[in-house]
Amino acid sequence: MVLLAAAICNKTGKAIISRQFVEMTRSRIEGLLASFPKLMGTGKQHTFVETESVRYVYQPLEKLYMLLITTKASNILEDLETLRLFAKVIPEYCKTVEESEIVGQAFSLIFAFDEIIALGYRENVNLAQIRTFTEMESHDEKVYQAIRQTQEREAKENMKRKAKELHKMRQDPSRYGRSPGGYGGIGGGSSGRQDMQVVENLPAEKPKPAYNAQSRPSGNALKLGGKKDVESFVDQLKSEGESVISPTSQAKSVALAKATTPAANQESVHIRLEEKITLTAGREGGLQNLEILGLATLKVTDEKFGRIKIAIPNTDTKGVQLQTHPNVDKKLFQSASVIGLKNPEKPFPKNQDIGVLKWRFQTQDDGFMPLSINCWPNEVGNKCDVNIEYELERQDLELNDVTIAIPMPSGFGAPVVNDCDGEYHYDNRKNILEWRLPVIDSSNKTGSMELTIGGHANDFFPVNVSFISKKLYFDIKVDGISMVDSDVPVKYSSEVVFFVDKYEIV
Q: Which regions of 62-153 does DSSP assign to beta strands (E)?
């Protein structure tokens, strides 16, 4: 197909927004749009009309029309499919299909139109990909904004420094070789009074805001240079005390906030055991990958407890791989399951979180999944009945703050939830239905949700799961802590957390 233009117009043919994909004058497109209402016959239910040179493919949107202008040689079936995609894009950016709302979101709609059509030809994209492409962030743009803010800040500081020098020159003119009357010449006194007034009216210096990168919908950004230039500038910002948040750390910080909150009322010796799980499973069943990474962290805040040893027995039989810190006595751990330094006379560092032991487990055996999710979409006519079920496979675990996020197709509004164990929340901006369960344990090891919405089976994947637990996946625990010389038990505090890094069904 060759698409000449896409437009949203009213019933009189007035263009609200129009995007041309081939070279075309303004008078030409206005003439084509003005001719469109005259070609529509009354009482006929069609989705296209033709002239000698072009074809109009349209869809009514309440009081407006979504209109595509194509060549007569284009495939009408492809034209109709493209028209449906254009019509789905509009509710993504406009709360109501009204002229004022369309005008307010004109640039967002045009950017989305450009993702669908390139040089008159349809791109192989769906609605989810369009949303992703238009919301993508540019790292180069963020760095450019940071450089611009730094330059503006330096310019203000230079201005204030010059103003202070002028102020000092007014206060002590003899020191700078000036006459008390001003800068010499006629009118010197008035000039001095004007400069003094400028200095007094300067605004007070505002506190420096922490640099927080803002997302931009635009895709093209100014490129500043190579990777080394970007990294050196970011390092320079950090050395100046600026807080630079990278996109990767910003995305992970929200998910790990609950799991990484330090425990209150810590003793002088505190040990933390944590595990994070990364899991990918198929929608038809079967585990693609499961990886669990564990870490034992020790913190000593009192130097008299620096020379200690920690008993961490491992009674797990799943085949987990353990690795101690290079400064830890590996032979002692293998023989007695005790963590101690190679040099017993040397204490553990004070007020530092020291990783003393880490472990790793990876498998593709679905028998090791802690929680299984089954999502069954069933297309019935123009709607889809969806059944989602969960089952706790490891009944010795207790999962807290469980959230199962199911993507919903766009353009159909909120889903109708017929049955749900627990609570649910629909985010209409992200088109995600969140199924929330405070606790999943052996007392409610299974649960289900039933909903109905328009769309196709592929629209409901991937399903993402998040949870935290106060019990580790592997049977690794602290048995006790004692002094190296006297074996006297040491009072300690501990915390255990098992959380999700990525858990999805694709």
A: 64-71, 117-118, 121-122
Question: CA 92, CA 109: separation in Å to the nearest integer?
Answer: 9
Instruction: Give residue-wise pLDDT tens across range 301-335.
Output: 998 999 999 999 888 788 889 999 989 998 899 89
pLDDT tens column, 217-255? 444 444 444 444 544 555 565 555 554 544 333 334 444
Whole-prediction pTM: 0.52
Q: How far is it, in rounded angstroms, from Cα 159 to Cα 261?
A: 44
Q: What rounded mean pLDDT belongs to the chain? A: 82
35: Cα within 13 Å, side-chain hemisphere: 15
Where b means 16+ CB within 10 Å and e means fewer, 451-460 reads bebbbeeebb
DSSP result, 264-306: SS--SEEEEEEEEEEEEE-TTS-EEEEEEEEEEEEEE-SGGG-
Residue type, 483: M
Residue with tokens 């944590």: 274
Q: Specify whether the CB–CB gap between 286 and 366 falls below 8 A.
A: yes
DSSP state of 318: S
Burial string for 73-112 (b: 16+ CB within 10 Å, else e) reads: ebeeeebeebbebbbbbbbbbbeebeeeebeebbeebebb
